[in-house]
User: Fold Sugar or nucleoside kinase, ribokinase family from Arenibacter nanhaiticus.
Amino acid sequence: MGKLLIVGTVAFDAIETPFGKTDKILGGAATYISLAASQFNIKSAIVSVVGDDFPQEHMDLFTNKNINVSSLEVVKGGKSFYWKGKYHNDLNSRDTLVTELNVLADFSPAVPEDFKDADVVMLGNLHPSTQMSVINQMAKRPKLIVLDTMNFWMDNALPELMEVIAHIDVITINDEEARQLTNEYSLVKAAEKIQQLGPKYVVIKKGEHGALLFHKTEVFFAPALPLEEVFDPTGAGDSFAGGFAGYLTETENISFNNLKRAVIHGSNLASFCVERFGTERMKDLQKNEANERLLQFKELTQFDIELQ
Amino acid sequence: MGKLLIVGTVAFDAIETPFGKTDKILGGAATYISLAASQFNIKSAIVSVVGDDFPQEHMDLFTNKNINVSSLEVVKGGKSFYWKGKYHNDLNSRDTLVTELNVLADFSPAVPEDFKDADVVMLGNLHPSTQMSVINQMAKRPKLIVLDTMNFWMDNALPELMEVIAHIDVITINDEEARQLTNEYSLVKAAEKIQQLGPKYVVIKKGEHGALLFHKTEVFFAPALPLEEVFDPTGAGDSFAGGFAGYLTETENISFNNLKRAVIHGSNLASFCVERFGTERMKDLQKNEANERLLQFKELTQFDIELQ
Assistant:
């Protein structure tokens, strides 16, 4: 059974959208990644840190999903990372109201012994030095290292980010960030330039407009499912990454055709995530629900055409 | 052979994009629609109006493509419709700098006798009363009436627009306009509401993010081809409409599966349009070039996935 190592934040989020607001609820990149990845038949572990304000019920959620939390460090007397944000009316942009790093400020990741041979490493959004430290702790080169990052690190830790980018296989990044990183407006050109920095595969996430997968001259596009209700976009990108990495860990097949399927699985799981606040939808998502919606993705994009 | 009747502006455009600017060049909705539709094996005619400043070479372009211009009225001493616009850096938005209606102000459309039994009517962007007048002149109900419109008419002629919408089969509209028309942010809900106004099919155009086709509970998504260079978006929506209507006229098959193909053909032709200024790319486009790019659309979106 394939092993997936997940690095990223485990946090409290307070979220406001046009449809309501929440107090501190479970959030964080590693949380969404691991919940999405738990849809697949794999072994997974989280490397992260929380304070002792982190409730046992959240820990139980992970263990009940067979997510190994032996390296989810609990700092005595510490407070968990906290983010508060408010989405604008169109849900495509948001303001960060509060960011409290707390225990994350001094976090030094420790990869569990039995995941130092993980097949896939999913580096969720975190300081690039922390991501690099995880790569360096691996006993052997994983079959696939996937990196998710954001503009904050381009602005504040570009040299460290460039070093991580040079060591990975797949980068997932949103369209504006791809443009910022490369100074290219065309996403085709941006993806070309990013491949020259190291990654063989570039996934550009466009939110409600879907995601593009680039590899050399090949391009694949996965739409986002048009939904009646989008409630809360928090965690959509991480759920995408978790579905992508989880599927590749299960199938252990790093071909372009299989990466296409991984992008579809990622889009599929992200489409559930946004239907409820926080992790509400993901934590109870059933395999048959995910499978049914995969059929909708097929319906949505498949066509036959004859050339004359 | 199927007959397509095209209504819309034939005009002069002056365009400024981040990549350059043009003097007055050939433009207009009916121009782009007819050039795109001329890729198909159909009979087509334009109903429109120009002034006697409209050069013979443009008329020849239409006739050389077998586009009937007997009802492209030339007003002696009149000036052709003129639009001048400037695109912003991201090419997704633009400012209109000049709009001179000229001969269009008093335009009263006359459908040519031999197109009163057209199979498909493509109502390009124009005053809804003009569009309605064309519908009223048809000797028999066309198999399909397609309407393209824009927010300007929602703001300035909503009752007339609603009347046309009640008489058509397919509306093509962009995402912001769909939201404005229905007061729904979700495009799924917007498409439902628009279907209640009359059209059985709703095509929502999202520019560089592709197009969605809705019919009852069915949805189909056609991506825009990711391009290295987008030079000038002018006419992309009209080329899409022309490809869509042209393909349906040729195939004479109004099933959802065939409408899917029509959306792909529309997206395909629009992808050429934006590669050069104005009609430059469309006027010389060859069938084999269009066919080759259709294969890219297949590559871009087709995947196989097994459910477990």
Remarks:
- The first helix of chain A runs from residue 29 to 37.
